[in-house]
């Protein structure tokens, strides 16, 4: 079946779809290992060949047009078919199975990475994905020492020795059991812990003076929390207890009837079911950007690039840092 001369090459389609996923040509260029000018040229080539304007450009990035959404759906199908052809041929040749080694920080590994990995596995059932858990400091060390293909971190800052791409956002929240004093302040004596609304806020100063159940030093959670308070001139007192996993912190909250600072992703079900109560904090907030990181000498390729694309597709990946 002869193809029309108006069908773009696969690399052009890849740039088109990646730009849509990333939300900007700059972020797509970083992901593809190309210059922004090269990506822009590929997108223009696709639009010229197809005779369709795929994106509306603005200073903040790009957004698909109505016609562009259809083009992107078809382009994605073509790329998936090409990937299946490549994987099938590799299997017939007896090539080693596609594999990727990924270092993943705690919050990402528990609440986001399984979805990304499952997406890639559906596209490539032969994929071998090795996820190495650790805190953000450990992930950065693995990436900089070239021990992994890709990493995901949640700390407030990224060293200049790695490249990064924003893939998701969350926030840290202060939580307590319903019976804790912070949850019951302002509640009617006749109301049960599960009947009350949001408790009154605690101040940033009071939070800093309270021993909390915390993650360990080097974790993105601990670093984000202490950095936000330090910016206000507040030094947090030593924690009541500290643990190396989010799950352990959560369990200690119940066991010790103590406050903790955790990712909103980790406690969303507990908050919805009223097993935990979110305590507002006045004077400070703890938003976070979750990022993919990689060694700039070793840009993500193959399965690692597929994982990065899946992460970008699930959340906002608007900002890149070469």
Automatic annotation (TrEMBL):
InterPro entries: LysR_HTH_N, LysR_subst-bd, WH-like_DNA-bd_sf, WH_DNA-bd_sf. Keywords: DNA-binding, Transcription, Transcription regulation. Residues 8-65 form the HTH lysR-type domain. Residues 183-205 are annotated as: Disordered. One of its GO terms (molecular function) is transcription cis-regulatory region binding. Pfam families: HTH_1 (PF00126), LysR_substrate (PF03466). Coiled coil: none annotated. It comes from the Bacteria. PANTHER family: HTH-TYPE TRANSCRIPTIONAL REGULATOR, HTH-TYPE TRANSCRIPTIONAL REGULATOR CYSL. Belongs to the LysR transcriptional regulatory family. This is Putative HTH-type transcriptional regulator.
């Amino acid at each position: 079946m002869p193809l029309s001369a108006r069908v773009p090459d696969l690399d052009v389609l890849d740039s088109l779809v990646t730009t849509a996923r990333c939300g900007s040509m700059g972020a797509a260029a970083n992901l593809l290992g190309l210059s922004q000018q090269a990506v822009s040229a590929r997108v223009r080539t696709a639009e010229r060949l197809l005779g369709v304007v795929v994106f509306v450009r603005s200073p903040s990035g790009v957004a698909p047009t109505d016609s562009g959404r259809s083009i992107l759906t078809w382009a994605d199908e073509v790329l998936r078919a090409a990937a299946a052809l490549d994987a099938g041929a590799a299997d017939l040749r007896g090539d080693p199975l596609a594999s990727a080694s990924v270092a993943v920080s705690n919050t990402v590994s528990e609440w986001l990475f399984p979805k990304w990995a499952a997406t890639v596995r559906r596209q490539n059932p032969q994929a071998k994905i090795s996820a190495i858990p650790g805190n953000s400091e450990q992930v950065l060390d693995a990436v900089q020492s070239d021990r992994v293909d890709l990493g995901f971190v949640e700390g407030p800052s990224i060293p200049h020795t790695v490249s990064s791409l924003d893939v998701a956002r969350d926030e840290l929240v202060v939580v307590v059991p319903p019976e804790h004093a912070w949850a019951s302040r302002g509640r009617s004596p006749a109301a049960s812990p599960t009947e009350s609304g949001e408790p009154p806020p605690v101040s940033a100063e009071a939070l800093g003076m309270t021993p909390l159940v915390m993650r360990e030093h080097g974790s993105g959670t601990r670093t984000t929390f202490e950095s936000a308070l330090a910016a206000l001139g507040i030094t947090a007192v030593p924690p009541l207890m500290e643990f190396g996993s989010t799950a352990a912190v959560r369990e200690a909250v119940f066991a010790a009837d103590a406050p903790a600072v955790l990712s909103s992703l980790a406690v969303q079900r507990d908050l919805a079911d009223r097993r935990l109560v979110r305590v507002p904090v006045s004077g400070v907030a703890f938003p976070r950007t979750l990022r993919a990181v990689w060694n700039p000498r070793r840009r993500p390729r193959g399965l690692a690039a597929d994982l990065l694309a899946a992460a970008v597709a699930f959340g906002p990946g608007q900002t890149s840092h070469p």
